[in-house]
Design a protein that fits this description.
By secondary structure, this protein is mostly beta strands. The chain has one domain (about 10-205): Jelly Rolls. Helix content is about 0%, strand content about 60%. It has strands at about 10-15, 15-20, 25-30, 35, 40-45, 50, 55-65, 70-80, 85-95, 100-105, 110-115, 125-135, 140-150, 155-165, 175-180, 195-205. The strands form 3 sheets. Strands 1, 2, 7, 12, 13, 14 and 16 form a 7-stranded antiparallel β-sheet that branches.
Length: about 210
């Protein structure tokens, strides 16, 4: 829960937008030498904000996922002068010919977790929310899948991941909040259309 804070909504987009991702695009850091950060993004705020100010971000998106590692969703990119960038991306990733809910957090290197969506193979669109939460042990960033009703109301909030390090060192860090899409496969490995197109809507970003 978020206790004793004044919430301001910096972004609330009702219109839709798309991101087109060509082959060989990704956001991923893996030893010994992979450090990719060339996926197309769409900024959801005018610029970076202090990490201390970030409370919550939410987005709904859909795409035709055909090729291994096709992905789309939210990106929270942390920067601080003199420090190596950190980030979290979460949304959908296509793996073993199925759609999964995917979260990658990157402190030194990237780690990855996947789980089937609530709708299973019948998923048409996905709504993801990341939010600052506080419990008796401290603050962390939680990632949820939201199951929405016909009127957009939240019917279920399914927990996907708790990222404990994300808010552990807030001083001096700024966060950029973006939508992202990526198609890591090389062009010759793409199934179907060369580029991945992901459509986004329902953006909400809350700060304090």
């Amino acid at each position: 829960m978020i206790f004793g804070v004044k919430i301001s909504t910096l972004a609330n987009m009702t219109s839709t937008f798309t991101i087109t991702a060509p082959p060989s695009t990704d956001i991923w850091r893996k030893p010994p030498s992979t450090n990719s950060f060339n996926a197309p993004t769409y900024a959801l705020l005018p610029g970076a904000i202090p990490l201390k100010a970030f409370l919550r971000a939410r987005i709904t998106f859909s795409g035709v996922w055909t090729t291994r590692y096709d992905q789309g969703g939210l990106l929270l990119h942390l920067t601080r002068t003199g420090s190596t960038d950190r980030w979290l991306k979460t949304g959908v990733e296509f793996y073993q010919d199925k759609v999964y809910l995917s979260t990658v957090s990157t402190l030194t290197y990237s780690d990855w977790s996947i789980t089937p969506p609530t709708a299973g193979d019948n998923v048409k669109s996905t709504t993801i929310e990341v939010r600052r939460e506080v419990d008796e042990l401290g603050s962390s960033l939680w990632v949820y899948e939201l199951v929405l009703g016909d009127s957009g109301e939240v019917l279920e909030r399914q927990p996907l991941r708790e990222v404990t390090w994300f808010l552990a060192e807030e001083d001096g860090w700024e966060v950029s909040v973006s939508a992202m899409a990526a198609r890591p496969a090389k062009e010759e490995s793409v199934v179907g259309t060369k580029e991945l197109v992901v459509e986004f809507k329902g953006v909400e970003v809350d700060v304090r």
